[in-house]
């Protein structure tokens, strides 16, 4: 192997630029095709323990695109937080009925998909018959470029290779696999734009696991079917995902569901992972893409992880092609089913009473005395493999729902929200002139922020929302967004304040929660007195409330009493906790429509 690598390295440093890139592909462990003019015997993938740098992987795809201009292209689709462009490599005609998108190195310390995708693309292009007709494939070579450039040997403490890899956080220390809705990173905003333009039917995000030890090399998170819902969710769970497991098994790789242990070890049961829209495949579900997160097992040799990830991509392509027609029809039905909803689920929770059995192969867990902590420690005994039935919790129920309106009104003041709607290809028209209209207004009654920063925010859970019709002042240029459009589900799950990954949850509207004007008690006394005199009903309500509090032993200070009256006076601003995105209910016509 050393001799061959020397040959490649000579090409790398001495040859012409294209030849240098071709040599680079080979030296990365890719099987080089004779078409590329190099011997088809590069270092076998099974022996490679390295992953390309950003420069190397982009050079490799550039070479592939140059060598196959009729079948492939490499293009930039926006910027990343380190200024370098994000790339998308595409194969096959843009007009193909089936569209598959693969995202790599969102966590650059987990790069098996980077290698696997490059091998896959190389193999698909190695002979004309290898790339099936009827599919358009997109590959993001390296999504988290900033993290990829922070290359090191060691930050994946529990991982077996490769020798060097990037870091999980991006250039702003964000986990990009939590950033798909809030888009704090330029990477995510660029990705939103690319995704809504590419519009995949099937989406894959490649990772490496953490956690327990067990024999399987590859584990899988499918878009959570109950959360996906509709005809697509049912079909995904009953038909499509089982075909992928069977396809892997037929090729000798027994893939298992992602091992999300309920207790300390997998034999205590595993549960589905709920990938809400902040995650890659959860975001994809908002555009009716079925998504898969591959999680290769961190303790298996790197080359085996690459091999299993590559095998999954091949099985997925084959299975998707065989189901292409069904997939298109179900996607259409999914959209129609969503539009027919009066209320859509916007948050989910695991049903801990719905327990299924799963045949699982694991290693027995042993406990020993730790030489370090002087306490009990866990060890998996690889000499004691087992296959047994374990609990599998995979039923999720909606925990909050929100109305699906006829349209949303997004005032132009919320430009950061509008920027994200634009990135998602949301269709809209503008309010033609300043006006006052009757709209559905949501008031945030109960909410709780997270006490510590999480991914650059104090995530806010909205528990109670009250909706009523109110007159609202709109300005020329405010956005009217009908829900009867492709991005309907994206709109409902980002603009409903109670949705688990709503813009509200990610603090885009926190300024609306604050009261701006107050009063001086000594000045307001006279006003309060006049209010009570002129409004006997108010007086009665006020006094009975005070009696109730006194009898219950609760304090109701003078300031609190005056504040109660102030909030019922004409002086109160009425807008604290008024959610600033308004709705036109489903049975109401959309104003301003020509
Ligand atoms: Zn990961």
Structural key phrases:
single chain, 594 residues, four-stranded antiparallel beta sheet, disordered N terminus, binds zinc ion
Question: How would you explain this protein's 3D organization?
Answer:
With 594 residues, the protein is an alpha/beta fold. It folds into five domains: 1-43, no CATH class; 56-338, Zn peptidases (Aminopeptidase), CATH 3.40.630.10; 356-397, no CATH class; 400-516 and 575-584, no CATH class; 521-566, no CATH class. It has 16 helices and 19 strands. The chain has helices at 2-14, 17-27, 54-67, 112-124, 145-149, 186-198, 225-228, 230-250, 280-286, 302-322, 324-339, 415-423, 488-495, 521-534, 536-551, 558-566; strands spanning 72-79, 85-91, 98-103, 135-140, 202-208, 218-222, 256-257, 270-271, 290-296, 343-350, 356-369, 376-393, 396-403, 407-410, 429-430, 435-449, 460-474, 479-482, 582-584. The strands form five sheets. The chain has an eight-stranded mixed beta sheet with strand order 1-2-4-3-5-9-6-7, with helices on both faces. Strands 15-18-14-19 form a four-stranded antiparallel beta sheet, covered by helices on one side. Strands 8-12-11 form a three-stranded mixed beta sheet, with no helix packed on it. The longest helix is centred in the middle third of the chain and has 21 residues, at 230-250. Mean pLDDT is 92; it is low at 1-46. Bound molecules: zinc ion. Zinc ion binds at residues 107, 110, 207.
